[in-house]
Amino acid sequence: RRDLLNDEWTAAFEQLQSGAPQLPFSALEAQVEASLGEPVDSAFAYFDTTPLAAASIAQVHRARLASGREVVVKIRRPAIRPRMEADLRLLRHLAGLAEANSAEARRFRPQALVDQLARDILDELDFTREGRNADLIRTDYADDDRIIVPTIHWQYSSEDLLVMDYIDGIAPRDPAVLRAHGIDPAAIAELGAELVMSMVLIHGRFHGDPHPGNLLC
Is 76 within 8 Å of 58 (Cβ atoms)? Predict the structure, then answer.
C-alpha cells in the first residue's frame, strides 16, 4: 500500500509475501509427519526439502504424489499462533494509546480495527478454511478457463498442512517480465478487476489477499 507507506517500508513488507526467512525442513519434519500420520517418504513419491517460497505464516515445498500429480505442500510455521497473539496484544495496547491521546486517531477507531485484524488473521492459521474457500471459488469459476484455482488434496491436508496442485507461472510484480513472456499486463489487470467485481457483486465472496505472492500469470 504505497498510498499508506513509503517505498522503503513497502519493499520490506513485500518480503513477507513470499521472501520471508526460510526454515530448514528438519525443523518442520516432525510436525508435517504428525499431520500426515505417516512419514513424508511414504506420503509422497518425491518431496523437495528446499522451500519453494516462504511467507509470514507458512512456507511451501514442491512434492509429487504417487499418482504422479505435481503438488505444493504449505506448512504452517511452528509456534506461530502464540507469537501472533503476542504481537496482536501489543497492537491493541498501541491502538488504545492512540485512541486515548489523539482525537484524529479516534475517528478511525483503531482498537476496533485491531480487533477485526485479530479475528481475520488468526482465522488464516487454520488451513482447512483456506482449502474450503478455494473449493468454493473454484466452483464459482469452473466454467471460466481464464482462471485456475489449484485443487486441494484433502487426504493430505489439515489445520496446519495444505496440499494443492502445483501451478507454474509468473508473479505479476514487473510488467516488463510479463511482456518478456508474452503476457499483456493490461489484460491481466483488466481480468483482475473483472474478477473482483464478479466475486463481490455476483458470488458474494472474494479473495481477500490478492498480492503477487498469491497470484500467478
Answer: yes
Contacts for 98 with CB less than 8 Å, ≥ 6 apart: 105, 110
Element (H, E) at 159: none
CB 163 within 8 A of CB 153: yes
- The one catalytic residue in 120, 123, 144, 209 is 209
The answer, as to whether pTM is greater than 0.70, is yes
Query: Burial code of 2-33, b = ≥16 C-beta within 10 A, e = fewer?
Result: eeeeeeeeeeeeeeebbebeeeebeebeebbb
3 is catalytic: no
| pLDDT tens track, the chain, 217 positions | 778 889 999 888 888 877 889 999 999 999 999 999 999 999 999 999 999 999 889 999 999 999 999 999 999 999 999 999 999 999 999 999 999 999 999 999 999 999 999 998 899 999 999 999 999 999 999 999 999 999 999 999 999 999 999 999 999 989 999 999 999 999 999 999 999 999 999 999 998 888 888 899 9
Residues with Cβ within 8 Å of residue 181, at least 6 apart in sequence: 170, 217
Number of residues that make up the chain = 217
Contacts of 12 (CB under 8 A, 6+ apart): none
